[in-house]
Amino acid sequence: MYACIHEGITPEVSGELIQMSDTGEEWQVARRRKGTSRRLKSVQVSPTEFCCQEQLDIGKTVKRIKETVAELRCEDFWIDWKELLLTGAASLSTRPVNYKDTEVSIDPLQDSRASRVSPQTECVCYGLGSFSSCVSSRYQLAMMLLLLEAGQIPLKDCSMFDPVFSSGEKDVLRVLGLTVLSENEEGKRHVTKPILFYLMHCGKALYNNLLWRNWSTQRLPLMMIIGNSFNGMRDRTVERELKQHYSYISRVVSVCEETQLACPSRLRDVFSDTALITFPSSNLIQLPQSTWIEPPEPQYMQCPDLEIILKDAQS
Length: 315
Description:
By secondary structure, this protein is α/β, with parallel strands linked by helices. The protein is about 35% helix and about 10% strand.
């Protein structure tokens, strides 16, 4: 599962009660022992909880999400996110991918048009998690809806997938106007136009797969990611392991442009370690030309603690 295996993140409100579901019945104290790894374990869903998810009150859930959107809209940090989104989107390449690498460049007229995202832009969200039972996931969904609104990206042009979505949650997303994917792409989305990828606290393998699938100086500039900090991944991962198992992250981290996104302390569990990441062509061409030749598809056979549900593992 994508979102329930959050890369390097765990609740950090030590000693405070955190509601783990919207039923109001289950509470637990969130503590982290000093020196322990910041890794969120997979959520175990009991048959009773699964049944409750299947019988989800669609209208009530949609209402709760809209209330969360309204709450975030009043937050000061949302203004910072909005401005950074629009600035980052204005720098995205909109050249068709059949241009030669040397011709992929930023139109200077785009830099002055920071009022909206390119009308071609789509959004893809992987790994949101069970937003009907997880408060953090609901806030992340609400933030994504605000970003789509700010960038004037039509809701139908935002594609969603997480193996943990219940049928009720899929219905909620459709009621909101979003598109629910039926296939686990494993992050291997082929980019041919500007796309905002919303990948909150997903595992490194998903990011690595996305980079591999678009590993060229033509396609990477079409991508903008809101998700885990690549610098944070590098700092938390043994260098040998990063190069061996997540080689595309390892190679691109030095040339991508990353801006840390603001996060208030009360929402640290929801938005911590989140960055906006772009891939300017002027940076990418600094890498040796051999970097781009016949990139091999990632294989994770010997990878410990793989943080992704693969397509074959679902069946």
